[in-house]
């Protein structure tokens, strides 16, 4: 519906109609929107301050050359954010997520600390987190992967080539919105092509809309898979989840969070305090030591970053 207003000369002027849509691809200020009827349109942020990401619900108005101008972003839930090392503002990666899948593979060598950080981000934003072991037809997962299942994160054995585990992955996502994350080369693109044959077409649409096809490997793209959605993100070498305060890191590790109520002190950091249930569980072998050391490293990183980002 169009609203009318009057110009300075008193002549009625018709305002552009406003529409709502889902962001299914994002690359800088540009991207792709999908409406409820499945139609798609290339889009551009109407303001340089407006930054949309995959999974955002937005309102837009028609612009020149058939481009949708994104005017506003609806309130977000399940927001995956990374904390840049040199700036204070967290960077959104994807929004309105219900699930996060960390994809690992025999090659490149699994970066388990990176996996821990992504899973902590999932817990902190209220999403379900799981580990996917890709190329399971080539190599079985190492014993270290078992720690994720013991902590409460499902481990899915997958093979993009053979189709192994695809049904289990779709059942896990259900009707939700998931994001797949991980190192470059673990097979995210192959897995998405298996789950969503339209993946290549969406990437082509984004390349055409930006006019910079060779750069769209840095874009985030979301695809319909089964009854839900799965977003792809560029492979990374490092990731630090954005946390309000460093002490929140402890809440991102499921096995530590479960033990925390038994600690003597409510604000226990699980590093040196007497009467710490977590330290006792690590010593007894009930909590995986590598996962615990990963928690300590991430907390130290968060504390160091918080110190650098304090206003002077």
Describe the structure.
This protein has 312 residues and is of the alpha/beta class. The protein folds into 3 domains: 11-73, Beta Barrel (OB fold (Dihydrolipoamide Acetyltransferase, E2P)); 80-232, 3-Layer(aba) Sandwich (Rossmann fold); 246-309, Ribonucleotide Reductase Protein R1, domain 1 (Orthogonal Bundle). The chain has helices at 112-124, 146-151, 166-173, 188-195, 199-210, 254-259, 277-284, 289-309; strands at 4-6, 12-14, 19-27, 30-34, 40-45, 57-62, 68-73, 80-82, 91-94, 99-104, 128-133, 155-157, 177-182, 220-225, 228-232. Strands 3-4-5-7-6 form a 5-stranded mixed beta barrel. Strands 1-2 form a two-stranded antiparallel ribbon. Strands 8-9 form a two-stranded antiparallel sheet. The chain starts with a strand and ends with a helix. The model is unreliable at 1-14 and 210-216 (pLDDT under 50).
Topology, pairings included?
Layout: E1 4-6, E2 12-14, E3 19-27, E4 30-34, E5 40-45, E6 57-62, E7 68-73, E8 80-82, E9 91-94, E10 99-104, H1 112-124, E11 128-133, H2 146-151, E12 155-157, H3 166-173, E13 177-182, H4 188-195, H5 199-210, E14 220-225, E15 228-232, H6 254-259, H7 277-284, H8 289-309
Parallel strand pairs: 5-7, 10-11, 10-13, 11-12, 13-15
Antiparallel strand pairs: 1-2, 3-4, 3-6, 3-14, 4-5, 6-7, 8-9, 14-15
The CATH homologous superfamily name of the largest domain equals P-loop containing nucleotide triphosphate hydrolases
Alpha-carbon distance between the two ends: 50 Å
The stretches of 5 or more residues where confidence is low (pLDDT under 50) are 1-14, 210-216
What profile does the largest beta sheet have?
5 strands, mixed, barrel
Secondary-structure content class? alpha/beta
Radius of gyration: 22 Å
CATH fold-level topology of the largest domain: Rossmann fold
What coarse outline follows from CA principal-axis ratios? globular
> What's the helix count?
8
Total of domains? 3
Strand fraction equals 15-25%
Order of helices and strands: EEEEEEEEEEHEHEHEHHEEHHH
Helix percentage = 25-40%
The largest sheet has its strands arranged as 3-4-5-7-6
User: Mean pLDDT, nearest integer?
Assistant: 89
Number of strands: 15
* The first-level CATH class name of the largest domain: Alpha Beta
Q: In the CATH classification, which architecture of the largest domain applies?
A: 3-Layer(aba) Sandwich
């Amino acid at each position: 519906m169009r609203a009318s207003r009057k110009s300075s000369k008193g002549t009625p002027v018709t305002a552009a109609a406003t529409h709502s849509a889902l962001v299914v691809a994002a690359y800088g200020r540009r991207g792709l929107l999908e409406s409820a009827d499945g139609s798609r349109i290339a889009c551009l942020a109407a303001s340089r301050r407006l930054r949309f990401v995959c999974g955002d619900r937005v309102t837009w108005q028609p612009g020149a050359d058939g481009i949708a101008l994104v005017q506003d972003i609806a309130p977000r839930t399940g927001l995956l954010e990374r904390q840049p090392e040199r700036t204070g503002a967290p960077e959104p990666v994807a929004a309105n997520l219900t699930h996060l899948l960390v994809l690992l593979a025999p090659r490149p060598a699994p970066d388990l600390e990176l996996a821990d950080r992504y899973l902590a981000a999932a817990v902190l934003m209220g999403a379900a987190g799981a580990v996917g072991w890709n190329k399971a037809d080539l190599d079985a997962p190492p014993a270290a992967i078992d720690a994720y299942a013991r902590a409460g994160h499902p481990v899915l054995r997958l093979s993009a080539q053979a189709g192994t585990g695809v049904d289990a992955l779709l059942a896990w996502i259900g009707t939700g919105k998931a994001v797949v994350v991980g190192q470059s080369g673990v097979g995210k693109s192959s897995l998405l092509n298996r789950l969503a044959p339209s993946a290549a077409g969406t990437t082509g649409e984004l390349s055409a809309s930006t006019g910079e096809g060779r750069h769209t490997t840095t874009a985030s793209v979301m695809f319909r898979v089964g009854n839900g959605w799965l977003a792809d993100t560029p492979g990374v070498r490092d990731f630090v989840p954005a946390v309000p305060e460093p002490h929140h890191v402890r809440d991102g590790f499921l096995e530590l969070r479960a033990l925390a109520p038994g600690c003597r002190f409510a604000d226990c950091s699980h590093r040196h305090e007497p009467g710490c249930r977590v330290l006792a569980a690590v010593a007894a072998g009930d909590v995986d030591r590598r996962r615990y050391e990963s928690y300590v490293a991430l907390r130290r990183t968060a504390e160091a970053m918080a110190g650098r980002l304090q206003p002077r």
